[in-house]
Amino acid sequence: MTMAPAPASRIAVVTGASSGIGAATARRLAAEGYRVVLTARRQERIEAVAKEITAAGHDAVAYPLDVTDRAAVDEFASAFKTIGVLVNNAGGALGADPVATGDPEQWRQMYETNVIGTLNVTQALLPALTASGDGTVVVLSSTAGLATYEGGGGYVAAKHGEHVLAETLRLEIVGTPVRVIEVAPGMVKTDEFALTRFGGDEDKAAKVYQGVAEPLSADDVADTIGWAVTRPPHVNIDLLVVRPRAQASNTKVHREQS
To answer: Is 155 a catalytic residue?
Structure first.
């Protein structure tokens, strides 16, 4: 059973909502009764998703935004007196090189988007979340933020940073009407995540999921986020790890032989 959002907290902001988990989460929260604000850098993509949500009879609006641009984030946040939910989904992985040969610029980009982007939007919207009287910050981290794996140093470091951000924020704002939920997915197959990580190399992207019968989908993660957000206001899902059944850890995955 889900709880309908209170009138003062019916707005949900989703970052990185142009595709994958972000777009699926926007659809899910719209179906739960939220007026969803979709943000991402790709304006045409978020407008298309918002149009789709609206056509389904729900309420959605698109707002192009680069979460690493603090001035733009502050301008965006100034439009809201109250919001109910912020889903920090913007992020991503670049490369899979070992630490010894990793590209520092890729590391920097991952940190800027995953950590500083989450910090920017959370700081800017925290007053509006607090003013709602029932706010929820969702940080979409990763199992990479909880355990390391070879070839993932830059992404793992960024996601560890995001995990610690969520954990620290929860400590610092306890007693306010805002809860902090962290959702950490494992292997999720989306149209773009692995492809972006490997610079558009389709063969390398396909090998990530090779032999895995049922990796998680974007809808699986969106369903998890929707469930966590719609718990009664006094219930906080501090950290929810969600993996496909075939994945026991970041380094232990069952792959069927072809």
So the answer is: yes
pLDDT digits (tens, 9 = 90+) for 225-241: 999 999 999 999 999 99
Count CA atoms within 13 Å of residue 180 on its CB side: 21
Vertex 19, ends 18 and 24: CA angle to 5°?
105
- The CA angle 31-217-241, to the nearest 5 degrees, is 90
CB 89 within 8 A of CB 21: yes
Count CA within 13 A, CB hemisphere, residue 137. 30
User: In this predicted model, what pLDDT tens digit does every residue of 191-223 receive, in sequence order?
Assistant: 877 767 777 777 887 888 899 999 999 999 999
Residue 69 to residues 15, 66, 72: CA-CA distances in angstroms?
13, 6, 5
> From CA 241, how far away is CA 187, in angstroms rounded?
11
pLDDT of residue 1: 39
Distance CA 67, CA 231 (A): 27
The number of helix segments (H) and strand segments (E) in the chain equals 9, 7
CB 134 within 8 A of CB 186: no
| DSSP output for 102-132 | --HHHHHHHHIIIIIHHHHHHHHHHHHHHHT
Active-site residue, selected from the candidate residues 34, 111, 155, 209:
155
CA distances from 177 to 96, 132, 133, 144 (A): 40, 8, 5, 29
Number of Cβ within 10 Å of residue 92's Cβ equals 17
| 76: exposed, middle or buried (Cβ count in 10 Å: 0-12, 13-18, 19+) | buried
Burial class (CB in 10 A: 0-12, 13-18, 19+), 78: exposed
Task: Retrieve residue 217's tokens.
Answer: 């989908």
Which pair of structure tokens corresponds to residue 74? 């502050």
Among candidates 13, 84, 27, which has minimal Cα distance to 55?
A: 27
